[in-house]
Amino acid sequence: MIALEFDGVCLRYGSNVTLADGSFRVGQGKFIGLLGPNGAGKTTLFRAVLGLLRPSSGSIRVFGQPTRRGNAHIGYVPQFGKQLNQLSLSGRDLLIGSVTGSRYGWPFSTAAQREDIDRVLEVTGAGDLARRPMGTLSGGERQRILIAQALLGSPKMLLLDEPLVSLDPNRQESVVSLVRDIQQDLDMTVLFCSHELTPLLGKIDGVLFLGQRKVALGPVEEVITPKVLSDLYGAPMDVVRSAGRVFVVAGGPSPAA
Amino acid sequence: MYLIVVSALTALSLFIAPSNTKAADLITVVAAENFYGEVAETIGGPEVTVTSILSNPNQNPHLFEADVATAQAVSKADVAVYNGADYDPWMLKLLKASPRAGRTEISAAKLTGHKPGDNPHLWYDPKTIPAIAKALADEFAKRDPANAALYRQRLASFEASLAPLTDMIAQLKAAYAGIPVTATEPVFGYMASALGLDMRNYRFQVAIMNNTEPSAADVAAFEDDLRDRKVKVLFYNSQVTDDTTTRLLNLAKQSGVPVVGVTETEPANLDYLAWMVSQLEALKAALGAPAK
Amino acid sequence: MLQYDFMVNAFAATFIVAVVAGSIGYFMVLRGQTFAGHAMSHVGFAGATGAVLIGLSPLTGLTFFTLLAGLGIGLMGERAQSRDIAIGIVLSLSLGLGLLFLHFYTSFAGQATALLFGNVLGVARDTLWIMLVMGALALVILAVIARPLTFASLQPELAEAKGISPKILGTIFMMLVALAVAESVQVVGVLLVFSLMVAPPATAMLLARRISTGIALAVLFALAQAWIGLVLAYYTNWPTTFWITLLGAVAYLAANGVVHLTQNMR
Asked: What are the b/e assignments for A198-230, b being 16+ CB within 10 Å?
C-alpha cells in the first residue's frame, strides 16, 4: 500500500518554485526523514500533503486519495509556535480545545473524544505532563504533548515539521525514539522533517531529501552520498562518517573563493 | 477613609434636603449653560432654585462629560433650559435618562427656529435671551399662578434692562452695516448678522468649528483679506490659543486690521448684559467712529 | 442611589457592556488584538460624518463603517505584526476620511460628533432594550465561534490543517468586535468600553487556567469594575470613567502580585 505518492508535482511558494516535476512514493508504515537546506520548501511540501496548497502541476495522493483540507488520516505537528510559550492552559485542555475547536457549534467534548485524549496521552506517556500549564513545560515536554495531539483521531500518517529545533541533543534523541516507538506500535507512516540527519540515524527507514527543486527518496546509504547531495545542494558537499554518526558538510573549494 | 465619610455625609444630606418643606415649594430649574441659568434666576427670583451646569468659563463646552451631581440636578428639575442645535447633546441624554412626567424642556434652538447644522452659538443672537426670558416667565406663571404677576413684572424689568444693549446694536448697525469683517470662528456670527456686518471666510470658520483643517485655498483667501485690508475687523476666540489663530492675529496686526476678542463662554465676573456690551464696546473702538 | 432612574439605567447598561466587553475582550487579549479594539472606537467617526453628508443617520454610518473596518483588518492581517500594521493603516485612513467628510460640511457637524460622546449617566430606558438585543446577538455569535476561534488563535497552523480557516475566523471575530464596540461606544463612551475590554480579561488570564473559567472571570471582573466604579462615582462625584479605569488597573496589579507571591512560595 502506497501511503504518499507524488507524480510530476510542481510546488510554488509565492513566486518561488520549490519543487519541479517531483515524483516519489512512500510505502505505508515507513519512518522517513525529510531533510534539506533551509528554504528548500520542506514546509511547503507538508502544506501540499495537508491539502493546504494545490500543486501547480502533477498530482499528490495520500493513501490512494487526492489531497484535501482537513484530512483526518493525517496528524500534524507544526513548527514551534510561540503562542504556547506563556500559556497557563494545561496540555489536556489544549487537546480538548483542538477536538472541539475543529468544528463550529456545540462546544463540549463527547465521552468518545475524551477517551481518545486519554489514549493518546497514554501512548506518549504524557499523562502527568498534560495536567501542568503548557507554559511551565520544557521544550521536549511540550513536543510530547503536541505529538499526542497529532495522534488524536487515530491518523495513519504523521507529519512533524522541525520538532527538534531548540532541543538539546539528548532531548532530540528521546523525541525521535518516542516517535519511532509510536510509529511501530501503531503502524503509521511518518514524515519527520529535520535540519540534521544525526538524531534520526539508525531509526529512520529512509530519507526524502529536498533541494534545488529536486527530490530524492531512498535508504540513507543511497541518498546521503556526496554525489546526490552536491546535486541537491547545488554546491560541492561531502559526507563524513565518524563513530557511527553521519555528518553532511560543505566540501571542496567554495565557488566564491 | 476621610473622603468616604465626607462623601457619605454629603450624600446623606442630599437625601435629607427634599424633605424641607420650603424647598419643596420652589420651582427647580436646571440650565445647561450659565447665561440661560442667569435669566432663570432673574425672572424666577427667590421663587426658583437654579442649577447651571456649564458655569466655568475655562471649561471646554465641547469636551464636557457630565458627573453624578449634574445628572442628579437634571433628574430633580421641573424646568430644563438648554441651547440645543447639537451644541449640548449631553443634556438631551441626561434628560432622557431621567424621564420625569410634567417636566418642561426649553430649547433655545426651538424657540428661535434653529435646527441642527446651524451655527449653534445662539446666545449671540439678540433675539435669543429675550425669547428664553419670555418662555421662562410663561412657564413659571403656569406652575405658580399665585405669583404670575411677579414673574411678568420681572420679565418687563429684565427686558428694560437690556435696553442699553439693544440701543448699542442699533447704533452700530446704523453706522457700520455692510462693512466687511472676518473671524477665525463663528462664535460671534449671529451678533455680526444683527449688526448688519458682512462676514467673510465662513467656510474657514466652519472648518475650525468642526475641528477639521481649512483648505489651503480658504487659508490663502483669509490671509489675503487681512493683507489687502479687505476686512475692517478680525474677531477671534480669546479662549483658544493655537498656531493658526496666532498666525492670523499677527498678520492682522502687521496689516493694520484691528482685532476684537470674543468668548464662547461667559466670563467669570460678568453677566450677560455686561458681557455683550463690553464686546460691542471693543468692536466700536476697533471700528473707530464716535457713537452717534 | 437607586431612586434615580439614570443610576438604575447606568447599572443596567454597564451590566450589558461588561458581559459583552469582558467576553469579547478575553479573546482580544488572547489574540493580542487590544489595539484593534481601541482603533475601532475611533473608526466609527468617519462613518457617522459620511452618513450625514449623504443623508443617512449617523448611527447607520457608524455601524456600517465600523463593520467595514473590522472586515478590512480581518482580511488584511494574519500574522501578529501584519495585524498591527493593518490596524494602524485602517485607523489612520478612517481618521483621514473623517477629516475629508468634515471638509465637505457647510454647516455645523454637531449631529455626527454628538454620537461619539456617550455618557454612562445619560442612558435612556429604550436604549437599554436595543443594547440588550445587540448584546445577546454578539454573545450568540461569540458562542458559535468560540472554540474554533480559540483553537485558531493558539495553534493557527494546526487549525488550518484541520480544515479551520484562521483567516475567516479572524475576520468574523474582528467584525464582531466592530459591532460590539460601535454599539456600546455611543452609549457609554469610548474609554469605558475600552477599559472593560482590556483590564478585566488581562486580570482573568493571570488567574485562570482554563479558557472557560477565564471568560467567566473576565466578565465577573468587568462587572465588578463597572458597578463598584459607579458606586464610587456616585458618592465622590468624581468621573465614573476614572473610577472604572482605576479599578481595572488596581485589579490587574493585584492579580500580578498574587501570581508572583504564589510562585515564590512554591
From this structure: ebbbebbbbbbbbbbbbbbbeebeebbbbebbb
**Contact: A93, C150; criterion CB under 8 Å:** no
Q: Domains plus CATH for chain C?
A: 5-191 (1.10.3470.10)
The segments of chain C whose pLDDT lies below 50 read none
pLDDT in tens, A135-189: 888 888 999 999 999 999 999 999 999 999 888 888 898 999 999 999 999 999 9
**Sign (positive or negative) of CA dihedral B97, B102, B103, B107:** positive
Domains recognised in chain B with CATH numbers: 2-161 (3.40.50.1980), 165-286 (3.40.50.1980)
Residues of C numbered 157-216 whose beta carbons fall under 8 angstroms of chain A's beta carbons: which are they? Answer: 157-164, 205, 208-211
**What are φ and ψ of residue C258, in 5° steps?**
-60, -45
% of chain C surpassing 70 pLDDT: 97
**CA atoms of C69 and C87, how far apart (whole Å):** 9
Q: Could you report how far apart the first and last alpha carbons of chain C are, in Å? A: 46
Q: What is the ipTM of this complex?
A: 0.88
Using CB atoms, pick whichever of A69, A79, A101 lies closest to residue C150: A101
A97/C151 Cβ within 8 A: yes
C151 and A83 in contact by Cβ < 8 A?
no
Query: Where is B116: in which H helix or E strand?
Result: none
Q: Residue range B2-9: average pLDDT?
A: 61
Residue A76 to residue C158, Cβ atoms within 8 A? yes
